[in-house]
Specification:
This protein has helices spanning 60-82, 125-138; strands at 2-3, 6-7, 12-15, 33-36, 43-45, 87-92, 95-100, 106-113, 115-119, 149-151, 154-155. By secondary structure, the protein is an alpha+beta fold. It folds into two domains: 2-51, no CATH class; 60-155, K homology (KH) domain (GMP Synthetase, Chain A, domain 3), CATH 3.30.300.20. The strands form four sheets. The protein has a three-stranded antiparallel sheet with strand order 3-4-5, with no helix packed on it. A three-stranded mixed sheet has the order 6-9-11. Strands 7-8-10 form a three-stranded mixed sheet. Strand 7 and strand 8 (106-113) form a beta hairpin. Helix 1 packs across helix 2. The longest helix is centred in the middle third of the chain and has 23 residues, at 60-82. The chain is elongated, with a radius of gyration of 19 Å.
């Protein structure tokens, strides 16, 4: 929904991990949940297996990295067009570091994107690699996190 220059988004997160006794104990409940939005298929989520989650479901940490990688890719494709760089393929393997604190809290301290870009003209590889900085500056998600998001691109 657009209100002036603001955009609003809505998702629903529904816990599906009640094993019959709710949160009666730390190991008594499942971390399974569904993330949904109107008109879209549900994402099946859980906690990271380290935190008693299901390894066969998406966890919030993976979704955060996915959002960073998706946003950067979409920003990069836009920037490439504006600089006359024709991208034929794009793939990224994003990595992130999260630290746990003594009080049980934690936070991401860094993320690194590793975009591999296939170009129509490999002679533009240096220009294509340089565009990641501009794409990062335009990426809504990267601008919203409080940890550094690095880039290790390769184009050709």
């Amino acid at each position: 929904m657009v209100i002036g220059n603001e955009h609003s988004y809505e998702v629903t997160v529904r816990w599906t991990g009640n094993r019959g006794t709710g949160t009666s104990g730390y190991r008594a409940y499942g971390r399974d949940h569904e993330v949904s939005a109107a008109g879209l298929p549900a994402l099946l989520g859980s906690a990271d297996p380290t935190f008693h989650g299901d390894k066969d479901r998406w966890n919030p940490e993976q979704l955060l990295l996915s959002a960073l990688a998706q946003c950067h890719m979409l920003s990069y494709l836009h920037v490439a067009v504006s600089h006359g760089v024709v991208v034929l393929g794009y793939e990224d393997t994003a990595t992130g570091t999260m630290v746990l604190n003594r009080d049980g809290s934690g936070q991401f301290t860094a993320a690194t994107l590793h975009p591999r870009v296939k170009l129509a003209d490999p002679a533009q590889a240096a220009l294509a690699d340089s565009l990641h900085e501009e794409a990062s500056a335009k990426c809504f998600i990267a601008r919203s996190v409080n940890f550094p998001v690095g880039h290790e691109p390769s184009a050709g």
